[in-house]
Specification:
A hairpin with a 2-residue loop joins strand 5 and strand 6. The N terminus is likely disordered. With about 350 residues, this protein is of the alpha+beta class. Helices cover about 25% and strands about 20% of the residues. The strands form four sheets. Strands 7, 8, 9, 11 and 12 form a five-stranded antiparallel sheet that branches. Strands 5-6-10 form a three-stranded antiparallel sheet.
C-alpha cells in the first residue's frame, strides 16, 4: 500500500470517527432527542421566542455599542483596538465572568448581544432559572447572576469597584436592581410572569440621571449655596468613561435681567491621564471629582451687589467639550431662587 493510499484511508477513518462523535453529541446513538445541537451565534436566534426582550435589547445602547457614532469618534473609529474588547465582546464565559473580555469579528451590528451574556462555557444558554422545557433550555448560573458578569466590561474605569465601596453593595442592591428592573411579561397563553428589563437605562436616559442626583440651591447670609448629592447611583456620579461630566452652573439676575453668561461652579469628572489642568473650579490637577455614592458636593458663591435672584442648572454631558446646545448635553435640573 503506497503513501497516497494510506493517507486517503486515514482521512476516511478520521472523518467517519469525527462524524460519529458529532452525531452522538447531537443526540444520535440511542438518545431520546434526535434534534441537532444548536450553535448559538446571533441575537436573531432569540427573537422568535423572546420578541419583547429582543425589542428592548434592540433599542438599547448595548446593541449599538460598536456602531454608535459617539463611540466610533471617541475610539478613533476603533483604531484604539482595546475598545473593541467591550464594545464587540465575545461571550463573557469564554474568558470568565469578571475577567477582561476578548473582541469578536462577527455580527458587528449586534454590539453587546444576547449571546455575549447568555452563552455558557459548554455552548448552552445560561440565565436566572432552569427551564429544560423551553427550546433554548437555559440553566441557572450563579456567576452569570453576579456583579462579575457586568464587571467584565464595566470595571475598566472602576465602576464596580466604586459599587463595592458603597453602601449598596453591603445591602445587596446590585447592578441589575437599578439597570434591569423587574417587569411583568405576558406569555402567549395570556398568563404573566416577571422578567427583567433589557433596555439598560443609564447615561443616555434623562429620568435615570435625574434619580441619581439631588440638586439644591439656597441662600445663607451673603452667599448662595449650591449642593449636589449622589442619592441613588450605586457608583460614582458620573461614572465610567473619563469624558462624562456633571456640571453645576449659575448666573445672577439684577433689575436689568439675568447676566448673559453662565458660570461653572463645579464639574464632577475623572480627568484623562495626560490632563495637566484641573477638570473644574477648585480642583487640583489630576484630581478625580466624581461624586461617590451618598456623597455631597457644596459650593458657596458670594452674592454680588444688586442681585435680586439666582438661576442654577445641573447638566450631564457625554463629553466635557460640548456646549449647552449640544445633543450630548442633558439638562437635569433648573432652579431659580429669589434673593432677599
Amino acid at each position: 500500500m503506497n503513501f497516497a493510499t494510506r493517507s486517503g484511508l486515514a482521512v476516511l477513518l478520521l472523518g467517519g470517527f469525527g462524524g460519529a462523535i458529532a452525531w452522538l453529541s447531537a443526540g444520535g446513538g440511542g438518545s431520546k432527542s434526535h434534534a441537532p445541537a444548536v450553535r448559538w451565534e446571533s441575537s436573531v436566534q432569540c427573537k422568535p421566542c423572546h420578541e419583547d426582550v429582543y425589542a428592548e435589547w434592540f433599542g438599547s445602547h448595548h446593541r449599538i455599542s460598536y456602531t454608535n457614532p459617539e463611540v466610533r469618534e471617541l475610539s478613533d473609529d476603533f483604531r484604539k483596538e482595546e475598545c473593541m474588547d467591550c464594545h464587540l465582546p465575545r461571550p463573557l464565559a469564554v474568558t470568565g465572568f469578571g475577567k477582561r473580555t476578548l473582541p469578536r469579528r462577527t455580527h458587528f451590528d449586534e454590539g453587546v448581544s444576547c449571546i455575549s451574556c447568555h452563552l455558557g462555557e459548554g455552548g448552552g444558554i445560561v440565565g436566572r432559572n432552569d427551564r429544560p422545557e423551553v427550546p433554548c433550555r437555559p440553566r441557572r448560573s450563579e456567576p452569570f447572576l453576579a456583579v462579575e458578569a457586568c464587571e467584565s466590561c464595566h470595571n475598566q474605569h472602576g465602576t464596580t469597584d466604586q459599587w463595592r465601596a458603597s453602601h449598596y453593595a453591603k445591602q445587596g442592591t446590585d447592578c441589575s436592581s437599578c439597570h434591569m428592573p423587574e417587569v411583568r411579561r405576558v406569555r402567549s397563553d395570556g398568563s404573566t410572569r416577571m422578567g427583567r428589563d433589557h433596555v439598560y437605562r443609564g447615561a443616555h436616559d434623562q429620568a435615570t440621571l435625574q434619580k441619581a442626583g439631588r440638586f439644591e440651591v439656597k441662600a445663607e447670609g451673603q452667599e448662595v449655596v449650591l449642593s449636589l448629592t449622589n442619592v441613588e447611583a450605586g457608583h460614582n456620579f458620573p461614572t465610567e468613561e473619563r469624558h462624562r461630566a456633571v456640571d453645576m452652573m449659575y448666573r445672577f439676575v439684577t433689575a436689568g435681567g439675568p447676566t448673559p453668561q453662565w458660570t461653572l461652579a463645579h464639574r464632577a469628572r475623572q480627568p484623562y491621564r495626560d490632563e495637566s489642568t484641573p477638570v473644574g473650579p477648585g480642583a487640583a490637577p489630576g484630581e478625580n471629582t466624581q461624586l461617590p455614592a451618598g456623597a455631597t458636593k457644596v459650593v458657596r458663591v458670594p452674592i454680588p451687589a444688586g442681585a435680586t435672584a439666582v438661576e442654577a442648572r445641573l447638566w450631564y454631558r457625554l463629553t466635557p467639550f460640548c456646549g449647552d446646545d449640544s445633543d450630548k448635553s442633558t439638562l437635569l435640573f433648573e432652579r431659580r431662587l429669589d434673593l432677599p
